[in-house]
Amino acid sequence: MNLEMVMQELEALGKERTKKIYQSNGAHEPLFGVATGQMKPIAKKIKINQPLAEQLYATGNYDAMYFAGIIADPQSMTEADFERWIDGAYFYMLSDYVVAVTLAEADIAQEVADKWIASGEELRMSAGWSCYCWLLGNRPDDEFSETKLAHMLEIVKNTIHDSPERTKYAMNNFIYTVGVSYVPLHEAAVETAKTVGPVEVQKDKKKSSFLLASERIQKAASKGELGFKRRHVRC
């Protein structure tokens, strides 16, 4: 399938209701409003196709950009490729659920994510922290430096309340993911969550809400989910 054929299939799957949901979360035109589950049959036909993924991502169409992440070949992508993708990620559903997810399947994931976390830019930071969440929830514990992750928990503890809004979400999720999916630092994550307490996040035109990692970790522990690892990062 070529670019035109994929765009036609995506457009045919678009629903106005889904489009409005995406727009309420920050997506803007162009987009069709395709439910992610409906993309799977197209993905099965294409499988992995990095050149096509690049063409789709470059359209600026949200649905096409999301689908690009599904068929991308992360191992063939360079740091420059990921930088180009994060530059095009104009809201969190792209930065955290397309770019960060794709990066998490690359060997250079931690190296790139570390730079994004240190960038001071909201969506780059959010993508960097989110990438670590995807990594920790999928890869064996021995692929990570316990010292490094402990230091990252300290950074979260000391900076989360003053961080940009979307970054707060990702940092809070990092505490939770370390607490559940990285067993060596479970107790440290629990203590960090307690020290951090509720994290207030502002939403556009909505009342602010509060994130509480400690409750989420406790719920996961009560369900016997400590040590959880998913088989695949991407759907």
TrEMBL record:
It comes from Paenibacillus riograndensis. This is DNA alkylation repair protein. InterPro entries: ARM-type_fold (IPR016024), DNA_alkylation (IPR014825). SUPFAM superfamilies: ARM repeat. Signal peptide: none annotated.
